């Protein structure tokens, strides 16, 4: 009898050890999926990096070029529609899938841009700008949202930086492209400015059509995207996203619930980060060529050429910071470092005397300001849960960026030349507001995480969720 008991104990012990081993194995496999060390995940990420991040950056180039080739009035007409249509456009994108949606709006805005070059009255031009604002409203927020659905929270900073800064860098060469197209003045009886819009619109259409065959949809729908990945690979992506934040499942759209996310005060602080960064961002994009030409004495061609290296510096700075940010799982320190560099850049460009020093200051405005746009996206994407909340937040902060675009297009006025003090002060105030906003949310996140660790608080309705800062 004793022997039987011992045997039973032995068997029970073996069963326990087997169960324990299976649990350990599952944990190891989950860790490999979550960290991206799993060989299967590495293959999938190589595909998505090219077909999502690379393509989105290329398409964003044309939007970036378009916005700096117009006068102030036409810029102001564009942004109200760009802002107002953010929430509905991203909801539509979620419904009909990004591949169809992005292809349609890119080709459509290419056609509208081409039409800019053939209109005969200013009223027609204004109508086209309104339509372009509606179409472009759907692009950037959908692109940022799509990236956030494919990668874990520790992987999005370098991806956001890559697609946005790659597009912005190429967009920084838009002035050179426009200057070259301007030389077509008189061809077929059309003015040079018309050829700028016609050719840029055609390029946009040519880039937009292949997007339907290259871009992929959300992970759970990806197997339908031209055999990009199979069902098993899609399930791996869904599993690791659920391990990271448990919000892959998308409930049916409900307008009241969708708009209720506006009650979350953090979303508006995320919007301040994006809006105020955009003030500096757009100010520099619109007026740096003017400063280089009018105040530093460079020719039009030289000013356009000197503008471009600042954007090259931006992608080097931003992608490097994005890589380190993901590795260390830190967002706020890099954002605040860039704010400090922006202040340095504004002071050098605005208050230094030597032309070389002032031009050097331009690098420290363009580079950090453009780098903080993807950091703003990453910071908000890391700190919210729920697909519709993610969509609402993306639309809100990108819409706030449109408000920053309006401000940025107005603060550097011709009557303030040569010092442009109001514009410089506006940029410094914008940076200061970014610092205050980021510090406020970060202090709250640190406190909330500590309370959650002590079991005193549940964050975003998930006991396992912790804020990233």
UniProtKB/TrEMBL annotation:
Key words of the record: Membrane, Transmembrane, Transmembrane helix, Transport
Major location category of this protein: membrane
Pfam family, one: MFS_1
Compartment(s) of residence: Membrane
Gene3D superfamilies in the cross-refs: MFS general substrate transporter like domains (1.20.1250.20)
InterPro entries in UniProt: MFS (IPR011701), MFS_trans_sf (IPR036259)
SUPFAM superfamilies referenced in this protein's UniProt entry, alphabetically: MFS general substrate transporter
One GO cellular component, as annotated: membrane
Claim: Coiled coil is one of the keywords in the record: no
Residues annotated as transmembrane: 71-89, 101-120, 126-151, 163-181, 193-215, 267-292, 298-320, 332-352, 358-379, 391-411, 423-447
Gene Ontology terms, MF aspect: transmembrane transporter activity
Membrane topology field: Multi-pass membrane protein
PANTHER family found in the cross-reference section: MAJOR FACILITATOR SUPERFAMILY (MFS) PROFILE DOMAIN-CONTAINING PROTEIN-RELATED, PERMEASE-RELATED
Annotated protein name in UniProt: Major facilitator superfamily (MFS) profile domain-containing protein
Organism: Knufia peltigerae
């Amino acid at each position: 009898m004793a022997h039987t008991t011992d045997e039973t104990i032995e068997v029970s012990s073996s069963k326990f050890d087997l169960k324990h081993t299976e649990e350990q194995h599952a944990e190891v496999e989950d860790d490999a999926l979550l960290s991206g060390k799993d060989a299967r995940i590495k293959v999938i990420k190589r595909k998505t990096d090219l077909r999502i991040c690379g393509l989105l950056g290329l398409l964003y180039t044309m939007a970036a070029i378009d916005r700096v080739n117009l006068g102030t009035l036409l810029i102001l007409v564009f942004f109200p529609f760009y802002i107002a249509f953010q929430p509905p456009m991203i909801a539509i994108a979620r419904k009909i899938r990004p591949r169809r949606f992005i292809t349609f709006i890119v080709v459509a805005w290419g056609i509208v841009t081409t039409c800019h070059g053939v209109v005969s009255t200013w009223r027609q031009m204004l109508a086209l700008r309104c339509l372009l604002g509606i179409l472009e409203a759907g692009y950037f927020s959908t692109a940022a949202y799509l990236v956030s659905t494919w990668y874990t929270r520790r992987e999005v900073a370098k991806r956001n930086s890559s697609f946005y800064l790659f597009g912005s860098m190429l967009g920084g060469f838009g002035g050179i492209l426009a200057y070259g197209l301007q030389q077509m003045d008189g061809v077929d009886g059309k003015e040079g400015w018309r050829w700028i819009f016609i050719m840029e619109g055609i390029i946009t259409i040519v880039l937009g059509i292949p997007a339907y065959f290259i871009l992929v949809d959300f992970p759970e729908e990806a197997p339908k995207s031209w055999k990009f990945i199979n069902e098993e690979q899609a399930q791996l992506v869904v599993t690791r996203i659920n391990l990271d934040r448990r919000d892959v499942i998308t409930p049916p759209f409900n307008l009241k619930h969708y708009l209720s996310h506006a009650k979350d005060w953090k979303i508006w602080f995320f919007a301040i980060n994006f809006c105020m960064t955009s003030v500096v961002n757009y100010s520099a994009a619109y007026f740096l060529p003017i400063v280089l030409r009018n105040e530093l004495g460079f020719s039009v061609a030289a000013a356009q050429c000197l503008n471009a290296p600042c954007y090259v510096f931006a992608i080097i700075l931003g992608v490097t910071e994005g890589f380190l940010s993901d590795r260390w799982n830190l967002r706020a320190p890099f954002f605040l470092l860039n704010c400090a560099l922006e202040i340095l850049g504004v002071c050098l460009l605005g208050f230094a005397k030597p032309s070389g020093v002032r031009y050097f200051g331009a690098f420290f405005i363009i580079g950090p300001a453009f780098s903080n746009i993807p950091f703003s996206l990453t910071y908000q994407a890391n700190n919210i849960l729920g697909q519709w909340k993610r969509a609402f937040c993306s639309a809100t902060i990108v819409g706030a960026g449109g408000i920053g675009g309006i401000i940025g297009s107005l603060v550097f006025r011709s009557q303030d030349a040569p010092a442009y003090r109001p514009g410089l002060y506006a940029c410094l105030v914008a940076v200061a507001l970014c610092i205050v906003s980021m510090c406020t949310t970060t202090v709250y996140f640190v406190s909330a995480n500590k309370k959650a660790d002590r079991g005193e608080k549940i964050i975003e309705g998930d006991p396992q969720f912790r804020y990233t800062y």
